[in-house]
Specification:
Low-confidence stretches of chain A: none
Distance between the termini of chain A: 70 Å
Largest sheet of chain A: none
Largest sheet of chain B: 7 strands, mixed
Distance between the termini of chain B: 67 Å
Order of helices and strands of chain A: HHEHHHHHHHHHHHHHHHH
Low-confidence stretches of chain B: 1-16
Helix content of chain A: 55-70%
Structural class of chain B: alpha/beta
Shape of chain B: globular
Number of strands of chain A: 1
Shape of chain A: globular
CATH architecture of one domain in chain B: 3-Layer(aba) Sandwich
Strand content of chain B: 15-25%
Strand order of the largest sheet of chain B: 1-14-13-12-15-10-11
Number of helices of chain B: 10
Oligomer: heterodimer
Number of helices of chain A: 18
Number of strands of chain B: 21
Chain lengths: ~425, ~475
C-alpha cells in the first residue's frame, strides 16, 4: 500500500495551491482521505482520539441498508413476474433468485447511480466553493433516496428531487450536520408534491402499464399495481361502496396478497426498500448494536405507532381503522422510516429524553395521518418531516427543565446559607 | 445456609457499613481508556536535573509580573513572579540557583522562567505556623506568601483561585482516574502526617468546616485522616476528576465559589508549614506504551523532561506528554514538566497515513480501542490493553452523532448545548446551561470520543475565559 500512497503523494502537488488541477483539490482530498486515514496527529487538547470517525459511522449505516436493498431489488423482480403472470403464487422460492434479482437490478441500479451521481456532484461543488472537505453525510442519503422511490419513477425526476433536497434542505443551511429536515425525506416529499400525478398509480411495479397495455397483466389477481396503503386509502374518503371495501379488506386476510406474513416478509408492491419489515429489522439490529441508530427513537416510534393503531382498533369507525395495529406497522414505509429516517441524528431530537418524545409522536402521527387523510396514503414521510421541525422545540423544553432544575438548586442553596 | 447469631461486636460494624454504602456515589457515565504501559508501583527517586522551570501558562488566569531578572540568584522559595491581579499571590522557585533565562512568546508573553540549579538546595525560611490561631483571611495570605495559592484551583472559571473571595467549600479528590495516572498510595506514601497538617490548614480557610475528600471505593490511604467529609466514589474515569465529585456532592451554583487542591500539594503545604520552607515535590507516573519501564518517579516541580526519558526515547517516533494523554501538554526532550502535571506519558506518534482496509476506517480494528461498538473493542476481554498512537483517526467534521458526549459526561448538564452556546457566544445561555460547574478537563472524554473530532476542551476554555471577562 506504500506504493499507492507514494503515487498519491506524487500527484499531490498538481492539486495543491498553484497546481494545474487546483480546482479539483476537493476530489483529490476526498479520495486520499477515503483510502488512507490521514497522518494528522493530534495537536491541542486530547493526544489520543477514538478510532471511530464519520466515515466508519456512515459506512455502518450503509451496511445496515444492504438487506433492505438486496431484498427490495429481488422483490421488484418478484413483483414483475407476478404481474405478468410468469409465476402465479407469491411463494418467494418459485423461480431462481438470480432472475428476479437481475430484473430488479435493471431498474434499481440506475436509481442508485443517479442519486449518488447528482448528490455527490452537488456536494463536491459546494465543498469546492466553500473550501472545505467533503462530509460523508450524503453517502447515506444517497442510498436512502433510491430505497424510498417507486421503481418506475423517471430518472430525471429523481435527479431533480436529489438536487432540490441537497441544495434546499442541506447546503443552504450549511451542509452536513446543519440541516433541519431529513435530506432523503425531503427528496421524496418534493416528488410527492411537485409531481403528484406521476407519483401515484402505475409506478409501483416495473413496467406495469406496458404489461397492461400488452394484455399481460393478471388483473384477476389484483395486480393493479397499487400498494397496500393505496388500496386502503380507497376504502375511506369519497363514499366507497360496501362491496369495494370488502374486496380491498379481503386482500389483508391471511390468504390475501397483503396478508400479515406477506407484509412482514415484504412480498408486496411498494417503494424499493420499504416493503420488507424483516430486512429492515436486520438493519435495525446492526444500528442498535453499534449504537449508531438510537434504540430510544426506534422503540418509542414503534410504541407510538402501535398505540395509535390500537386506538383506531378501539374506535373502529371504518374498515381501515379495524385493521390490526401490528399489521399497520409492518405495512408501507413505517418500519423504514422508523429505522433509517427518524433516527437521523442531525434532524432528530438531540437530547436523550427528547428522543423518547420525538419517536413516540413520530410513530403516533404516522398511523394517524395515514388513516385520517387518504390524500397522503403514506403518513410516515409527513410525520417524520413534521417531527424534524418540532425536534428543536422538544429539545428546548427538555433543556428548559434542566435549566430550571439548576435554578431551583441555586435558590435552595441561597436560602440555606441565608 | 449458615445462620449468624447477632452479637454486639458485629453490630457496630454493620452500622458503619451502611453508613459507608449510603455515601457511595456511583458514577455510571464515563470510560476507562485501557492504554498499555500502566505505571507499576515501582518508585524511583530521580536525580536533580540541571535546570528547572516555572511556566506561567500552567496557571490559568494568571498574568505574571516578574520579580527577578535573568542572572539573579534565587533560593528555593524565592519569588519569581506574582499575579498582576493579586500581587500577594507569589509563584516561587522550586530550587536554589540562578535565573538562567526568561523565555517569552508572542507579544512578549512570558512562557517560562528557567532556573539553573546550584545543587545546594538553599531554602528560604518562612517560619513555622500555628494554623489554629489564624483567621480565614490570614490563612489565605499565608498560602499566597508561601506559594500555595498557585496550586489552588477555583470553580467557576477553572482558574487559579482568586484570594479575594473565600470559598464556600474546599474539595480534594483522593484518587486519579485518568489513563496511566499515578497511584495516590505511592504518591502519598509516608506523607499522611503532612497531608493531615495540610488539611488542618485548609480547614482554617473555610472557617473550620471539614474539607470534602473524595476517595475510591476500597481505597484505604486516607483512613487515618480527620477533619474531612469523606465521599466514596465508584465508576470509570472521570470519577476521579474533582469537578465530577463536586457536582455529585455539593454542586456549584451561580454566585458560589469552591476551591480544590491536589492531595500531593496538600501534603506539600502541610510539610511546608511544619518546616517553614517551600516544598514542591512531585511524585509522577512515567508511563505509556513507548515507555520501557513504566513506574513512578519522585521529582521536583518543573524538572527537565530529559531527566525522565530513557536514552532510547526517539522524538521522531514517539511523543512525550506532560500530563495525562487527555489533558496534558506536548513537551520535547529539552522541555520541563508542567507545574500542575503529575504524569509523563510517552505514546507513539501517529503521523503516518493508515490504509483504509488494514488500519484505517474500514479495518476490522481488533487492535483499536474504541468506545464505539462499530469496533470490536467491547467484545474483547476487559483485561486487554491497547497501544494508541496520537493519530487524529479522522478529520474534523460538523456535529452529527448525538448521545456520544452524554455517555461519558457524568454531569446533569447538556454538553452539546453548552458547547453550542459557547460557539454562539451566548453568555446568558452558558450560565443557564451550567458552565460554572465545569472545567475543560471534564470534557476531555467527550473530546476523545467525538466522531467529528471537534476540539472540545479548547472551546470550553474559550467559553470560561469569555464569561470571566464579561463578568469582570
Amino acid at each position: 500500500m506504500k506504493a499507492v500512497h507514494k503515487l498519491l503523494d506524487a500527484v499531490r502537488p498538481h492539486f495543491e495551491e498553484g497546481g494545474k488541477l487546483k480546482r479539483f483539490w476537493v476530489v483529490y482530498d476526498s479520495l486520499e482521505t477515503f483510502a488512507f486515514t490521514p497522518g494528522h496527529a493530534t495537536k491541542n487538547g486530547v493526544h489520543i482520539r477514538d478510532g471511530v470517525d464519520l466515515k466508519r459511522t456512515m459506512f455502518m449505516v450503509i451496511v445496515a441498508m444492504i438487506p433492505a436493498l438486496l431484498f427490495g431489488t429481488w422483490n421488484q423482480g418478484h413483483q414483475y413476474m407476478l404481474s405478468i403472470g410468469e409465476i402465479t403464487t407469491s411463494d418467494p422460492l418459485t423461480m431462481a433468485i438470480w432472475d428476479k434479482l437481475l430484473i430488479g437490478a435493471w431498474k434499481v441500479l440506475p436509481l442508485v447511480v443517479v442519486s449518488y451521481g447528482v448528490g455527490l456532484g452537488i456536494e463536491f461543488l459546494f465543498a469546492g466553493m466553500r473550501g472545505h472537505s467533503i462530509n460523508e453525510g450524503y453517502l447515506v442519503s444517497g442510498m436512502l433516496i433510491p430505497l424510498i422511490m417507486p421503481v418506475d419513477v423517471p430518472l430525471w425526476m429523481v435527479a431533480i428531487a436529489v438536487a432540490f433536497a441537497v441544495i434546499i434542505a442541506k447546503e443552504v443551511f450549511g451542509g452536513t450536520g446543519m440541516n433541519i429536515l431529513n435530506v432523503a425525506l425531503t427528496a421524496r416529499a418534493f416528488l410527492f408534491f411537485a409531481y403528484p400525478k406521476q407519483l401515484s398509480g402505475e409506478i409501483w411495479i416495473h413496467d406495469v402499464k406496458a404489461s397492461a397495455d400488452a394484455g399481460l397483466l393478471q388483473v384477476a389477481d389484483g395486480y393493479t399495481g397499487a400498494t397496500a396503503l393505496g388500496q386502503l386509502a380507497s376504502t375511506v374518503g369519497k363514499l366507497p361502496s360496501e362491496a369495494g371495501v370488502q374486496s380491498v379488506m379481503s386482500m389483508f386476510e391471511s390468504d390475501g396478497m397483503f396478508s400479515l406474513t406477506n407484509s412482514f416478509l415484504g412480498l408486496i408492491p411498494g417503494s424499493i426498500g420499504e416493503t420488507s419489515a424483516l430486512a429492515i429489522l436486520l438493519g435495525a439490529i446492526l444500528l442498535i448494536w453499534t449504537g449508531i441508530g438510537s434504540w430510544k427513537i426506534m422503540s418509542s416510534f414503534l410504541v407510538g405507532g402501535l398505540t395509535m393503531g390500537y386506538l383506531f382498533n378501539w374506535m373502529g369507525l371504518n374498515a381501515y381503522m379495524e385493521l390490526p395495529a401490528i399489521h399497520q406497522v409492518v405495512m408501507g414505509g413505517f418500519m423504514f422510516g422508523m429505522v433509517f429516517m427518524a433516527t437521523d441524528p442531525v434532524s432528530a431530537a438531540q437530547t436523550e429524553r427528547g428522543k423518547w418524545i420525538y419517536g413516540f409522536l413520530g410513530g403516533f402521527l404516522s398511523i394517524m395521518i395515514r388513516v385520517f387523510n387518504p390524500a397522503y396514503p403514506e403518513g410516515v414521510m409527513m410525520a417524520i418531516l413534521f417531527m424534524n421541525v418540532m425536534a428543536p422545540l422538544i429539545d428546548h423544553y427538555v433543556i428548559q427543565a434542566n435549566i430550571s432544575r439548576r435554578e431551583k438548586r441555586a435558590l435552595a442553596s441561597q436560602s440555606a446559607t441565608a | 445456609m449458615q445462620t449468624c447469631e447477632w452479637s454486639p461486636t458485629f453490630a457496630p460494624r454493620k452500622v458503619n457499613l451502611r453508613e459507608l454504602m449510603s455515601r457511595t456515589i456511583r458514577i455510571k457515565k464515563g470510560a476507562d481508556i485501557r492504554l498499555k504501559g500502566r505505571p507499576t508501583s515501582n518508585h524511583e527517586v530521580v536525580p536533580m536535573t540541571a535546570t528547572y522551570a516555572v511556566q506561567p501558562p500552567d496557571y490559568q488566569g494568571i498574568v505574571p509580573k516578574l520579580e527577578v531578572k535573568e542572572g539573579a540568584a534565587v533560593e528555593a522559595g524565592s519569588v519569581l513572579f506574582h499575579s498582576k491581579e493579586h500581587p500577594e499571590s507569589k509563584f516561587l522557585s522550586p530550587i536554589s540557583g540562578a535565573v538562567k533565562a526568561i523565555i517569552r512568546g508572542e507579544k512578549r508573553r512570558i512562557l517560562s522562567v528557567v532556573i539553573d540549579g546550584d545543587g545546594k538546595q538553599n531554602a528560604k525560611n518562612f517560619g513555622t505556623l500555628d494554623v489554629g490561631s489564624l483567621s480565614p483571611n490570614e490563612m489565605v495570605a499565608e498560602l499566597q506568601k508561601r506559594g500555595f495559592m498557585a496550586f489552588m484551583e477555583q470553580r467557576p472559571f477553572a482558574t487559579v483561585a482568586d484570594p479575594s473571595e473565600l470559598p464556600r467549600s474546599i474539595h480534594i479528590s483522593g484518587f486519579e482516574s485518568a489513563p496511566l495516572a499515578p497511584d495516590m498510595g505511592v504518591v502519598l506514601n509516608g506523607r499522611m502526617d503532612s497531608f493531615q497538617q495540610g488539611i488542618d490548614a485548609l480547614r482554617v480557610v473555610v472557617g473550620g468546616q471539614p474539607v470534602h475528600l473524595g476517595v475510591r471505593a476500597g481505597q484505604t490511604d486516607f483512613d487515618s485522616i480527620t477533619g474531612v467529609e469523606r465521599y466514596v466514589f465508584q465508576g470509570p474515569h472521570p470519577a476521579g476528576n474533582v469537578g465530577v465529585q463536586i457536582h455529585h456532592t455539593a454542586p456549584v451554583n451561580k454566585g458560589e465559589v469552591v476551591w480544590s487542591m491536589h492531595p500531593e500539594d496538600v501534603a506539600n503545604l502541610g510539610e511546608s508549614i511544619k518546616t517553614g520552607t517551600y516544598i514542591a515535590k512531585r511524585t509522577i507516573s512515567v508511563a505509556g506504551s513507548s515507555c520501557s519501564s513504566p513506574g513512578h518517579a519522585s521529582v521536583t516541580l518543573g524538572c527537565e523532561v530529559a531527566g525522565l526519558l530513557g536514552p532510547d526515547f526517539d522524538e521522531s517516533e514517539d511523543r512525550a506528554i506532560s500530563g495525562n494523554p487527555l489533558t496534558g501538554v506536548r513537551v520535547n526532550r529539552e522541555g520541563h514538566m508542567g507545574g500542575l502535571h503529575r504524569q509523563l506519558t510517552l505514546l507513539p506518534e501517529g503521523n503516518k497515513p493508515k490504509f483504509l482496509l488494514t488500519e484505517g476506517w474500514l479495518g476490522l480494528g481488533f487492535d483499536k480501542f474504541s468506545l464505539s461498538k462499530s469496533y470490536p473493542t467491547w467484545l474483547l476481554p476487559k483485561s486487554k490493553e491497547f497501544t494508541m498512537d496520537t493519530c487524529n483517526n479522522g478529520e474534523e467534521r460538523a456535529f452529527v452523532v448525538t448521545g456520544q458526549y452524554e455517555a461519558v459526561f457524568p454531569f446533569d448538564i447538556y454538553p452539546v448545548h453548552l458547547l453550542k452556546s459557547i460557539l454562539a457566544n451566548d453568555i446568558d445561555a452558558m450560565e443557564k446551561l451550567g458552565i460554572y460547574e465545569v472545567a475543560p478537563e471534564d470534557f476531555a472524554l467527550c473530546e476523545y470520543a467525538c466522531t467529528s473530532k471537534i476540539g472540545v476542551q479548547s472551546l470550553v476554555r474559550e467559553g470560561l475565559d469569555r464569561l470571566k471577562k464579561e463578568l469582570g
